[in-house]
Amino acid sequence: MTQAPPPPADDRPPPVAPSGQPPSAPPPPVAPSGGYPPPSGGYGMPAAPPPPGYSPPAYPGGGTLSPQEERTWAMLAHLSALLGLVVGLSFIGPLVVMLTQGQKSPFVRDQAVEALNFQITTYLATIVGVLLILVLVGLILLPIIGLLWLVFTIMASVAANKGERYRYPFNIRLVK
After folding, report:
1. Higher per-residue pLDDT: 43 or 72
2. In a domain, 5, yes or no
3. How many CA atoms lie less than 13 Å away from 51 in the CB half-sphere?
4. Which tens digits make up the pLDDT trace of 64-123?
5. Is the whole model's pTM more than 0.90, yes or no?
6. What pLDDT was estimated at residue 25?
7. Which of 11, 28, 103, 124 has the highest Cβ tally under 10 A?
8. How distant is the alpha carbon of residue 20 from its chain centre?
């Protein structure tokens, strides 16, 4: 049997750590039962108190808006649908108001949801009207839908600015 020759001698010095000491890794921690070591925090640990001056986020009913701000945002939930004339999607404005300001005030959320449902309802009615153009009924239906949409949107905006909860006369309530 032949033995393998010994490895060639290395004339290089051993690597040195940045601190000037030769590298030496500490032994890994050993768990008592042979598994993973216990967590140093997180699950199952009590939560630390919030830092001073920290206020928790607002939730529905939190009322972080003043009454004037509530009325303004509720009015904007209805009026923002008019921007839909430019973009073509009138439900985007009420949706944005509901998502951004709805958690700060129950009144704003109620009016934003009402406006969003009305815009979805009129959007669906417009699609039906466009399809009914083929039988000439849509030529009469589309201007009526447009006029009612404009009148009811303005009436809802004025009512919301007064602080009143407005309900549209015809509305499919898809969003709760």
Report:
1. 72
2. no
3. 0
4. 889 899 999 999 999 998 887 787 788 889 999 999 999 999 999 999 999 999 999 999
5. no
6. 61
7. 103
8. 52
Token readout for 152 is 């009811």
pLDDT mean over 40-58: 60
| Count of domains forming the chain | 1
When computed from its CA atoms, the radius of gyration of the chain, rounded to whole angstroms, is: 33
pLDDT tens-place string over residues 147-163: 999 999 999 999 999 99
- Max Cα–Cα distance, the chain, nearest Å: 105
Tell me the CA end-to-end span of the chain in Å, nearest whole number.
86
Tokens of 126: 């417009």
| Position 63 pLDDT exceeds 80 | no
Do the domain assignments include residue 167?
no
In a domain, 110, yes or no: yes
Residue 40 lies inside a defined structural domain of this protein: no
Distance CA 108, CA 65 (A): 9
- Concatenate the DSSP letters of all residues of the chain into one string: --PPPPPPPP-SPPP--TTSSPP-PPPPP--TTSSPPPPSSSTTSPPPPPPTT--PPP-TT---S-HHHHHHHHHHHHHGGGGHHHHS-TTHHHHHHHHHHTTT-HHHHHHHHHHHHHHHHHHHHHHHHHHGGGGTSHHHHHHHHHHHHHHHHHHHHHHHHTT-----SS------
